[in-house]
Amino acid sequence: DAGITQSPRHKVTETGTPVTLRCHQTENHRYMYWYRQDPGHGLRLIHYSYGVKDTDKGEVSDGYSVSRSKTEDFLLTLESATSSQTSVYFCAISRDRGPNGNQPQHFGDGTRLSIL
Amino acid sequence: AQSVTQLDSQVPVFEEAPVELRCNYSSSVSVYLFWYVQYPNQGLQLLLKYLSGSTLVKGINGFEAEFNKSQTSFHLRKPSVHISDTAEYFCAVSEASGNTGKLIFGQGTTLQVKP
Questions:
Q1: Taking CB atoms and an 8 Å cutoff, what residues of chain A touch B45?
Q2: Which of A42, B28, B31, B37 has the fewest CB atoms within 10 Å of its CB?
Q3: How many whole angstroms separate alpha carbon B8 and alpha carbon B109?
Q4: How many CB pairs under 8 A join A and B?
C-alpha cells in the first residue's frame, strides 16, 4: 500500500468552528489531492497540489483552503465549518507524469467529518 | 471539460455469475480511464487503467475493461464474481494531455454479490 496517512480518521465538530485535516505521505510523490465523497456524487476534487507551495482549486473549492509547506504534508482547512461540509474526505497522491502519461492516484483511508 | 456517467447505481448478482459495470464518458480531448474499487470503510484501490495501446485492459482480481472510443465507453467486466467482490466501483477519467492528473469520477456503482 502507498504510504498515505490521514488524520484524524474521525471528527465531530460544531458549525462555525475551524477544522484542519492532515494528509501525510512517505512516497515523495509530487502531486497531492483532496477529494470529498458524498452519496450520489462519487468523489469530487476540492484542491490539489503540484509541488511545495503550489496549489490550485478543484471543482468544489468554496469554503476550503489548503497548504503544502513540505513535500510530505498537505493540509485541508475548513475556515468556518458548515453542515454541508459533512462528508468523507480522501487524500490521494501520484507521481510526476511519466513517459506513458499520467500516473494513477493512490488513496488514503479517509477522514469521516461530521459537522453538527 | 470531462464528465463520467455510471449507468447503474446498484448491480445485484449471484456468486459465480458474470457481471458488467457500465461507464460512459464525455470529453472533447483524449482521456485516460481508470476503474477503482472501494471496500467498506476503506480508501479507493486501483483496479485497472487505460492509457494507450490495446483497448482491452486486464486488472487485478480477474477484472478487465474495454475502451471503446466510438461509443465513449469503458465498461468493467468479470466472468465469475465472488462474495468478496461486493464493494463500490468508480470509473474515472483524466485529460491525457494535462499534467496535473486531476480525476473526474462517476457516481459509483455498488456491486452486491449474493450467495
A1: 107
A2: B28
A3: 6
A4: 70
